[in-house]
Amino acid sequence: MTRAAPTPSIDNRSIVLIGLMGVGKTTVGRRLAATLKRKFKDADEEIEKAAGRSVSEIFDDFGEAAFRDGERKVIARLLEQPPMVLALGGGAFVDPTTRQQVKAHACTIWLQADIDVLMKRVLRRDTRPLLKTEDPEQVMRDLLEKRSEIYAEAEIHIDAGAGTHQITVDNILAALNITESPR
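Given the sequence above, the corresponding structure tokens read:
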């Protein structure tokens, strides 16, 4: 399930990975950045650095609205930096302001996987505030239903559930029409 519009130029733009939690944005992003010889940033890690606390603590202490406000500011700052590979948290691209900024300054790539794959991945760790419920799978299904139409606005769609992270990176490179590592 790979879809790409005409090959986007990434020379002067960051590459932003979007998708549900557990799809592999951070792991794939690190590998993609190494291949492209670019810096990698994880928006959630950058938010934690700026706030001096974990995403879970921000959610618990201040709520989702405060988290999203901080997230918006951090992502705007990251998009002003030299081109990089940036992994967004699952809900970041849903915010209209963040989405507009990202689409204006970066090539967007939606990493997709089916619910079974996502659940196997996200249940390995207890660090997902939105999944601290009695039925995390239903939460994931609801998130996928609510967010898919917005995620579909990404320039490139990549199936990230069909194999290894390296296969996902290779599929991204193919969609970007990059056949060899940049010099």
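The CA atoms of residues 4 and 175 lie 6 Å apart. Try to locate this feature in the token string yourself.
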